[in-house]
């Protein structure tokens, strides 16, 4: 097994999708906590949760982006799959920048246990772009079928093995 296999996962078991669950979950939490704080629901606690979830999302984004990038590098340039995946890359980079700006500009408010307007707007804008990027990510997998083995008749005991299937 190469280092690349370790990073991108085995056939039928890519590493990018589970990492995206953690990233999207943290950013979704940040958006929800930010809105709840702004609405005055446990305002101070939600402000702390908002900022910490944003920072945790940014930390988890690093391995998420690296694994996605390694898969993207394997795609043939100029193909429809490449165009969708490149749009996904651009959307996710834009979302990450918006969340990073929200965390940086929102730090002073976090210290005062409040979510200020601009960081909240940046968080919600990041969430909207994240949703678009997630849609495009789903298109890569469920429309173009990237990294899907689709071996319905493979016996279950063999299908769950990490070495199941051929190729990516
Ligand atoms: C850091 C934020 C990112 C998030 C939250 C994210 C999210 C997603 C999601 C939700 C999927 C569909 C997975 C599924 O439903 O099974 C996906 C697939 C994919 N993403 Fe990302 N992505 C991110 C970054 C990137 C980057 C920077 C690239 C580089 C181009 C990339 C390339 C891919 C590729 C190639 C797939 C197809 C499936 C695979 O490779 O495992 N992603 N992504």
Please provide a written account of the structure.
The protein has 168 residues and is mainly α. The chain is 72% helix and 2% strand. The chain has helices spanning 3-8, 16-38, 43-72, 80-105, 107-111, 117-143, 156-159, and strands at residues 9-10, 13-14. The chain has a two-stranded antiparallel sheet with strand order 1-2. A hairpin with a 2-residue loop joins strand 1 (9-10) and strand 2 (13-14). Helix 3 runs antiparallel to helix 4. It is elongated and about 55 Å long. The two termini are 14 Å apart. The site of protoporphyrin IX containing FE has 25 residues, from helix 2, helix 3, helix 4 and helix 6.
Strand order of the largest sheet: 1-2
Secondary structure: helix percent: over 70%
H-E string? HEEHHHHHH
* Strand elements, count: 2
Low-confidence stretches: none
Write the layout of secondary structure elements.
Blueprint: H1 3-8, E1 9-10, E2 13-14, H2 16-38, H3 43-72, H4 80-105, H5 107-111, H6 117-143, H7 156-159
Antiparallel strand pairs: 1-2
The structure holds protoporphyrin IX containing FE.
Protoporphyrin IX containing FE (HEM) is lined by residues 14, 16-17, 20, 23-24, 61, 64-65, 68-69, 71-72, 85, 88-89, 92, 96, 134, 137-138, 140-141, 146-147.
Question: Characteristics of this structure?
Answer:
168 residues, mainly alpha, two-stranded antiparallel ribbon, 7 helices, 2% strand, binds protoporphyrin IX containing FE
What would you say about this model in short?
This protein is an all-alpha fold and 168 residues long. 72% of the residues lie in helices and 2% in strands.
